[in-house]
Every structure is written in structure tokens, then in C-alpha cells.
Amino acid sequence: MKKLFLLFLSLIFFATFTQSCGYNIHTKADLPFQEIYLRNVENLTLEPGLQDKMRKIAYQRLAENGFTLTSSANRVIDIQIKNYRLSSLSEIGLNTVEYQVLMVIKVTIYDEKNNKIKEFNPASPFTTYFRTQKDLKSIIADRDIAIESLMRDICDDMVRRLIFETNEKIENSLPKSE
After folding, report:
1. Is residue 69 part of a domain?
2. Are 109 and 116 in contact (CB under 8 A)?
3. Cα atoms found within 13 Å of the Cα of residue 30, Cβ hemisphere only
């Protein structure tokens, strides 16, 4: 009985909290479009492998947010990694101990006829930092972790823009019924 009461009380608290703070739960039906095709991820930088990491993370984030990924979708996304920079921020005794990773991305959305619907740079440039005082293998591992974290942030912003900022543009691009 006590467990049932605590469950009921927590449900009431959750419902009250989510309704009072402006938080809304969106379902797949609320998406501006259901299916999407991630066609190209192009790396325009000299850093190898960024496009593979970006494709993997973009697929994960789109699927996690309710999009169905299929090559027959009416909406197509192309991603360009336009800039990547790893900068040294601070040194101790000629050894770099703090780094900055900067990345600039461009996302383009097309319709089924390859007409450009929207183009945006997800909160560009995205920046992250990491500290290390270890050997080269550890520096490379820490850098890769920072890059993947940065790409997850970029993809989260991309998905947010797809969901909340493309509604009006996509509705205007659909044929009007007479």
C-alpha cells in the first residue's frame, strides 16, 4: 500500500512539474516529417575520419529523436564539415596541457526533387576543451573523446533545428490544396 501511495505521489509530482515549467513531451507524430535520408557527410578538412564519426553520431541522434532513416525519404540531409581546428591553450614546461577543439558544420536539407529547403550552421562554431598531461596515446584518445562529444552536441543542435525551426519552411514548400 505504501509503494502504491509513493507511486501515485511521484506521478502527481511528475505531472505537475512537467506542466508547470513549460516542458512538453513531443511524440513522433509531432515531427515536421517522419522519414529522413542522410545522404552525404563531407569532410572538407585535413583531419581524416571526421566524416565517419559524424555520420555515425548523426544517425544515432536522428533515430533517438524519432526519425526513420531510409533512402526513400522525402527529406534529404547533407552535412559538410567545413572547419576543424585543434589549438593549444596552455603549457607547462614546454608540454601542452589544455587543448581547444573547434568545428564548423553546414547542414543542407533538400526535398525529394533535390530542391534546397533550408541551409544552416548548427550553432557554429562549436567548441570544446580538454586537459591532459599524459603520453601521446592518451592525448590522442582524449582528443577523440572530445571530438565525439563535440559532434554529439552539434548533432543535438541539428536535430533541434530540424524539429523546431523547419516547420514553417517545410509547410510552405508543400503543394497547396485548392
Report:
1. yes
2. yes
3. 9
DSSP class of residue 135 equals -
Residue 7 lies in a domain: no
All residues at 6 or more sequence positions from 88 whose CB lies less than 8 Å from its CB, including other chains:
96, 98, 99, 100
Instruction: Report the pLDDT averaged over residues 105-112.
Output: 92
CATH code of the domain containing 125: 3.30.160.150
Residues 162 and 170: beta-carbon distance below 8 Å: no
Closest residue by Cα to residue 111 from 165, 170, 162: 170
Pairing of strands 35-43, 68-69: parallel
Split into its structural domains, the chain has a count of 1
E strand intervals along the chain: 35-43, 68-69, 76-92, 95-110, 116-120, 126-131
Query: Which residues, in sequence order, are CB contacts of 81 under 8 Å at separation 6+?
Result: 41, 42, 43, 44, 45, 50, 51, 54, 103, 104, 105
Nearest to 108 by CA among 36, 32, 56: 36
Side chain identity, residue 143: R
C-alpha grid cell for residue 14?
A: 511528475
- pTM: predicted TM-score of the whole model, two decimal places: 0.74
> For a pLDDT cut of 70, what percent of the chain falls above it?
82
Q: Which structural domain range is residue 147 located in? A: 31-172
